[in-house]
Amino acid sequence: LAAALEQGSEHPLAQPFQRHAQTGLVASRLQAYPGQGISGDIAGQAYRIGHLDWLGLPPPQTLSAPAGICLYLADAKRLLAAFELEDSLRPDVHAFLAQIRERGVTLSLLTGDPSPHGQQLADSLGITEVISGARPADKLACLQRWQQAGDINLMLGDGVNDAPILAGAHVSFAMAAGTDLAKSSADGILLGNQLLKIPYALDMARHTRRIIRQNLLWALLYNLLILPLAVSGHLPPYLAAIGMSLSSLLVVGNSMRLSRL
Measuring CA to CA, how many Å separate 169 from each of 30, 123, 124, 178, 193? Predict the structure, then answer.
């Protein structure tokens, strides 16, 4: 039943269920609720799978507190099953976080999961700011608060629920394995899902800005010096033309230093 419902979801948490789909068991009238769950009809019966608070049903007395992410399956009247999911870290995440922190970037974790799993994950990674149970609108509101405080934001996400904040951030990246909506909302896509490409992109952006400023400064100083001399007749036209060509070559040569990064 859970696998049939999750066939209509692009959320990463739906992938473990989709591998267990059974032939002939098909859900209709599927409706996704961002950050909460999904509902649908199977053989004329209404079912829902998602977070317990969204289902609005009391927790089962016989179930111990889940250590990971927990999703619940229910019909119109009662809980039918509970599914506990563990999320494994990407192999390059620790190197990625170390390099990001070296560049003076403050890290925050926004998750739609209302369970303690988000806080446990953040503690293991040394992330102090965690917002759990955040719906797409909550994530976007948090981003807007940061921007109003003058922060420059870089967002990384992969799910449907991340689309608004990916579109609203100053710069954003979606994982290549993420949902189509996330990838279409982001500024860039991490091909190969390699997190270490982000510190490289930050370095490239900072070097590019430095080169642009150097080129603008040189062009300004050159024109302030040469133009008055050329207009007053103190500089022959051919020397002004040669100087302009050399100035352009200097700007191009300075910009080509970026190819060595």
Answer: 30, 25, 26, 17, 20
**Amino acid (one-letter) located at 58:** P
pLDDT digits (tens, 9 = 90+) for 6-17: 987 877 788 889
Element (H, E) at 52: helix 52-55
Q: Do the beta carbons of residue 192 and residue 89 sit within 8 Å?
A: no
Mapped onto helix, strand or coil, the DSSP state of residue 103 is: coil
pLDDT, position 165: 93
Q: Which residue has the tokens 């420059």?
A: 152
CA angle 23, 28, 33 (to 5 degrees): 115
114-138 pLDDT, tens digit per residue, is: 778 888 889 989 998 999 888 888 9
Residue for token pair 């629920």: 161
Q: 3-class SS at 85? A: strand
Closest CA to 186 of 155, 213, 152: 155
CA angle 194, 196, 197 (to 5 degrees): 75
Cβ-Cβ contacts under 8 Å for 207 (sequence gap 6 or more): 257, 258, 261
Three-class DSSP category at 133? coil
What are residue 60's phi and psi, to 5 degrees? -65, 140
pTM of this prediction?
0.71
